[in-house]
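User: I'm putting together notes for a lab meeting next week and I want to include a structural view of one of the chains we've been expressing. I don't have a solved structure, so I'd like a prediction I can at least talk through. The sequence is below, exactly as it appears in our construct file.
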Amino acid sequence: METRHLRHFLAVVDHGSVSRAAAWLGMAQPALSQSLSRMEQELGVKLFDRSRRGAQPTPAALAILEDVRISVTRIDAAAQRARDIAHGSAGRLTIGLVSSALFDMLPRALRALRRTAPGVQVVLREMSNAEQADALAAGAIDIGLMHTPVAVAGRMRERLLLRDRLVAAVPGDFDIDEDGCVSLARIADAGLVLYPRNQLPVLYAGILDALRKAGLEPFVSQEANRTLTVLACVAGGCGVALLPSWIRSLDFHGVRFCEVRDGQDLPNFNLSAIWPARSVPTLADLFAGLDLGGVHR
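Assistant: Thanks for the context. Below is the predicted structure for the 297-residue chain, given as structure tokens.
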């Protein structure tokens, strides 16, 4: 039994007449009658009692009516979903992301995605840079929101989402200057709380190089692989962290944020989308192409 037979059956039930149903369907009445007859033959039951007043569904027709209606609805939904997937507006998208993307970039990206492709099912996986690089190479995630530069095996595309300056996160009892700033010398004296070197090697090296350019000897007092863990270490008096300026939007007990007075040589904190380059457009391409606002902060 073909889907069109089910649609023809519903049209006759809803319009109460073969002629009216045929007009609504835009087909000849004999063709509709033939379609109904074929459905009756396949089911082995009579579906309509026809008279001059129209076509009335038989008890057998009424018994299957709801099931037929649900089936057609599901078929239509499946067909629409297939079209959406083919056009890149539905499907499943697995996103890897570093913790710093959670507080600003991800909410904006999800809102933009819902406006553009509300049928896309999103799976989120918070992962370190190194974990995302491995997951992208293995095909375990479709796109990664990562700190760059970073090396990822395979042919990848990249879009810079945010270029942020670094600010200092200091313990709540840290004695900052009157202008609310802190110097690199004070940071070096307190010791650094950094992400692990193997997680963000370029950022790690850039921070140490900036201190050395200022004639200071950097000392890493604590490493932590998540942003909230870094803040907890700062609150615990382990040292001073250098974090992207969006961190000011957080109220973390025991931590204050301030500008670095002589931090012009500090590296930027970049967040980028990285995803596999494919010969046909993917949901990752759609996500990476969303309008997420400015790059600089």
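A couple of points you could mention at the meeting. The mean pLDDT is 90. The radius of gyration is 31 Å.

User: Perfect, that's what I needed.
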